[in-house]
Amino acid sequence: MTESNSISYRQSSMGQVDTEFTGERFIPGIGGQIEAEHVHRYLFARQFVEGRDVLDIACGEGYGSDLMSGLAKSVIGVDIDEETIARARQVHTASDLRFETGSCLAIPLEDDSVDVIVSFETIEHIAEHEAFITEARRVLRPGGLMLISTPDPDNYLQDEEDNVFHVKELRRNEFFELMNGTFNNACYGAQECISGSVLMPLDDAKRFRTPVRFELDSHELAAKEQGRFGTFSIYLVAIASDQDLPEVDWSLLDVPDYSITTFMKLKHEMSLLANSVDGMKAEYDEALGSAYRELDSLRRSLLVRIASKIGLVKKPTGDGS
């Protein structure tokens, strides 16, 4: 990646890694899957905010608001937690960015005050879904755009305990009904962290369909077709407006530190290391065996000399008797 097309959020994460990580809210500096999921959403949102007034509701630590600032005309990050907002104000100081304490059910903004609302992983934390969307529409200007994501409970945390931070999750059909019943137009996407290979068109062909997903079993040397991408995806994303929707650049986020290529390289290096360890062990065993044999030889020689001195062993005579 060249410096000109690099979108940095490194400065955004400074001073925040010491904040307690509960496993729910992403804190910059915490790597892995949660980083990829959260950062990718805001990178995706950047295409809709250029030159516009943006509200980032439930903004958390403010890293996402910061990622959209500079490109947007203005960004307002709102979160219900006062300490979180205090940290965001301290760390993110761009002139077009500000943070306010407030609830998603009582947004501290005037009517018709923003062009775009970004709401990632918010709605499942409250029970009043319709009231939240109504409040969002109050501050959204006519023809404005709402970008919202939520986990799909049919795929999220399978075979695990319920997320204690989630108050009321929306199934896929419920999410679609809510957004379709509130806005004139909506389109939907899905998000999931995967590893493997990507095969995509080089042009913007209108005949492009949602990709088919296969799962590879390298032990059985087989691949299983699992249907279209999104069937089992963990997160749902909606883009909604009363006006015609803009063209959407769906995107991929490559995380080389966790890629299958990196995994195979590490696996190869571990194999070489294991072979080296095995070789060193063999050398050690041989050296130890040789030392034991030499020690045994010295012990036997010493016993023979002692025995000879005290007369337990006859000294050989010249005639061989």
What is the strand and helix layout of this fold?
Blueprint: H1 10-13, H2 33-45, E1 53-57, H3 63-68, E2 74-79, H4 82-91, E3 97-101, E4 114-120, H5 129-139, E5 140-151, H6 172-180, E6 185-191, E7 212-217, E8 222-228, E9 235-241, H7 260-309
Parallel strand pairs: 1-2, 1-4, 2-3, 4-5
Antiparallel strand pairs: 5-9, 6-9, 7-8
Can you describe this structure?
By secondary structure, the protein is an alpha/beta fold. It folds into 2 domains: 3-194 and 233-250, Rossmann fold; 259-321, no CATH class. Helix content is 32%, strand content 19%. The protein has 7 helices and 9 strands. The protein has a 7-stranded mixed sheet with strand order 3-2-1-4-5-9-6, with helices on both faces. The protein has a two-stranded antiparallel sheet with strand order 7-8. A hairpin with a 4-residue loop joins strand 7 (212-217) and strand 8 (222-228). The chain starts with 9 loop residues before the first helix and ends in a 12-residue tail after the last helix.
Task: Using brief descriptors, characterize the structure shown.
321 residues, alpha/beta, 32% helix
CATH superfamily of the largest domain: Vaccinia Virus protein VP39
Q: What structural class do helix, strand and pairing data support?
A: alpha/beta
H and E order: HHEHEHEEHEHEEEEH
Query: Stretches where pLDDT falls below 50 for ≥5 residues?
Result: 11-17
The CATH topology of the largest domain comes to Rossmann fold
Q: Summarize the amount of helix as a percent range.
A: 25-40%
Mean pLDDT: 82
User: Main β-sheet: number of strands, strand sense, barrel status?
Assistant: 7 strands, mixed
- Give the termini separation: 91 Å
Shape: elongated
In CATH, the architecture of the largest domain is: 3-Layer(aba) Sandwich
Can you identify the CATH class of the largest domain? Alpha Beta
- Tell me what portion of residues adopts beta-strand conformation: 15-25%
How many beta-strand runs? 9
Kindly report the spatial arrangement of strands forming the biggest sheet.
3-2-1-4-5-9-6
Helix count equals 7
- Rg from Cα: 32 Å
Oligomer: single chain
Number of structural units classed as domains: 2
